[in-house]
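Researcher: Please generate the 3D structure of the following complex. Treat every line as part of one assembly.
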Amino acid sequence: MSGGHLEARRGRGAAVLAAVVCALVACSNDPYPPGDEGALVYYSSFVDPPRTLDPATAYSSRAHAVTGAVYDTLLKYHYLKRPLELIPGLVESLPEVVDLGEGRSLYRFRLREDLLFHDDPCFELGGEGRRTREIESADVAYQIARLADPEVGSPVIEPFSNVLGFMDFAEALAERRGADPEFAALRAHEQYAAIGGMAGVRTPDRYALEIELARPYPQIVYWFAMEFTTPVPWEAIEYYDGEEGRPRFADHPVGCGPFQLTVYDKQARWVLEKSENWYGVRHPEWRAPAAVYPSDGTDEQRALGLLDRAGEPLPLIDRVEVRREKESIPRFTKFLQGYYDGSGIAKESFDQVIQDGALSPDMVDKGVFLSRTIEPVVFYLGFNMDDEIVGSADGEKSRKLRQAMSLVIDGEEFLRIFTNGRGMAAQSPLPPAIYGYDADYENAYRRVDVERAKQLMVEAGYPGGLDPSTGEALRLVFSSYNTTTAGLLQYQWYTQAWRQLGIDVEIEATNYNQFQEKVRRGALQVFEFGWGADYPDPENFLFLFWSEMSRVRHGGPNETNFSNEEFDRLFVSMKTRPNGPERLAEIRRLIEIVEEEAVWIPIFHRETYALYHGWIGQSLDYGISIPTYQFRSVDPALRTEKRADWNAPITWPAWLLLFAFVAVVAPGIVTYWKERQ
Amino acid sequence: MGAYVLRRLGYGVGVALGVLFLLFVLFFTVTAPDDIARKALGEKAPQVAVEQWKANHGYDRPLWPWQDWDDNLLFDHYTKMLTFDFGLSDADDAPIMDRIQAGMGPSLSLTVPLLFLGLIVAIPISLLVAFFRETYIDRMGVFICVLAMSVSTLLYIIGAQFLIGKILRWYPISGFDADPLLLPRFLALPIIVGLMSGIGGDVRFYRTVFLEESARDFVRTARAKGAGEARIMSHHVLRNALIPILTRVVLAIPFLFTGSILLEAFFGIPGLGSITVDAIRANDFSTLRTMVFIGSLLFVLGQLATDLSYGFVDPRVRFE
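Model: Done. Output below.
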């Protein structure tokens, strides 16, 4: 090896060593590279990566945190109005609905013209040098066809099966693929076209889209506010196949939303950047309702500062930086250091952050503010109505037993013990922010009254909880899918409450699949479960009691298998009726039936506590899993100043350590040296 | 020696096959294919979607050969692993090999410096403690080592994150960035924790080895010849203690590739340990079996390499 080469290697080695030493010595806990101090960036974190970003299959809040920003939808929700209200997104106006008779209906959408997909190399498949193209109604029709495609495996087949010809299309596709290898080798969009498309999805012209429903299902419009029906370019599906170094479409979304995913390292980090192709950025003059910060908020929202940016074009930030944090303590510490702009509250730090239901003085001094949202979610204890003892077969007797069991479960106490007070004790299946929710409604069987419960037990034929057929305490089985210690503590709390009535309830906690199997077979008595809204309509909660949705008989989500003629009749009517006094009256009656029958013991509606630093503008959460990045605002100068204040390293212990090290090692070296002499 | 290597490799294959069988039995004793599907699709997924997922991923087949001789999951499990066809993750359909390749860099960037720094720190301390044997320095050293070994790694992690990351604010409390200028900043804390949690055991082990060597005849001879204690420790004792040191190092090498589960999870390092934890949490059988299979192969090869290395370091060792 020549001397020059050796010197060059030594030089490189020294440079690397110097870089490492400099990086270590220049103490800083800043996890970000320099250069973003003045940028309009929102910093956040994620725990686990999404399974997929394919809008046909992504069905989790962690996936929607990305897909909701990358894929735009035909309809959107008004940012400030509660209950949530639909507004036009990619379309010019809300769909025109035409009643075709015999339960059939037609939804006419018209896409805005000059909408573009994000820039992406996949569009070269449609012509050399192309980086994007205009969005057409055929792209929406293509995505709906993907929902039906068995190879895609979408989890939302059931609601879309109301679209005329949806299931026929799926069957024809599978059949043709099995029978004709040449057909199976075609590109997906060519296959869809070759079998004639879906009867109920039509594109009369480049921008018009018609959806024909075979059955009444007015809630279909809400699915057009979700990414399941976003326009998807066929080029992206064909190009991102995971071959020859290309990522899979599930990891490389090509959308048309306000943000484009520019970095996606599932294990560590993802970055969303403002898309210059988004119609809100390209055409601010349109003042499109979903591309401008709304001005029509309430006085309360104005007082909170939620209307400070009213009328401004969206998005208000340029970039979203999201880093992976698996553990809650580092995540929360980084928030306190100012490296994340928002955070939940780590369980371990709850008492430090929240005192007497409000932010602690330390948090207030830091300029942190708290955003509380009651989610459209309900947790409940359910009774299997097919069961011989607690079910409907025993008529009045079992009804009174269920009512008695409901009367001794204290929702408020549950929240105090198990959720740090986060949540709202539930009176009915309907959570706030859902049409039909009545804040003044009180369920007669959801206020604790042990004496009345005991009386009901007597009327049910179980005086003191004694089962006359055995002469011993009535024995029931409580089933759950939560086998953690925390879960078991909750169940013991339930069983202790029922013990006041003399009922002996055995806890049977299994894994989720075994629990599902029991639900499917109807082999349980009392169980714990929860439901979160897909869309903000009471139908999405009350259908959990509709006999057509019975789990045992129809495989639907009615886990209790409740069946009641009056309920069914009213539900079908309420489902198709527009919001108004008549619908409200029907909802009220439906809730009364559920209350009187005590099919559920509604426990609570979950509440999220989110903390934000003072440099982040006030914001509102939708409650359902839709990201709100485009509405977030940031003051980067204040953030930089606060980060510097909060994170100046304390270096004297390092010097002390160095001194101690020298004091220990130096005598040793001197001794060794002397000995060598 | 060739016969010895072949025989040991044969044992290794047997061990790997056994590990694969145990993994299959244990996994499917507590988890059904429906569980894997539900984890992948989400709790709200209807049964029809679960069935479709199982069909698309091959989990609609029976588990055991006696249920269907030609087409069963156990056969498929062995075929795929033994042909190194790791396939796609059950959690997100991503190629597992790509994920392993991506995770190896972050894992090695943590474990390799940790191994070498551990040696650099532990050996001199052990020599020092052995040098002062039977004095208060030795007794204090052993006491501190036992204390250090008794503390849970989790406590070191939380303590270091609190003290160094939060109070002193020297380094980021967690995170990872492959940028060479930022990487040392992110690795400093996990390496400090790794050193602290491992040093007690290492020092005690090396001290014992050094003390054993110190009592040998050649050391007494060196001392009789008038060699200084420091020279005896560095030239005679250390050199002759290389076999046990080498054993420990070579045994550790395979695990450099599998990463450190706790450190990676708590410090947000996207390495192979982190991937393994994710696979367990997601019921991702495909990824989990791959990681276990690779781990078992590396262990077997590590054992073999250790045995062979004896022969190179000490010519008296013969392979039969």
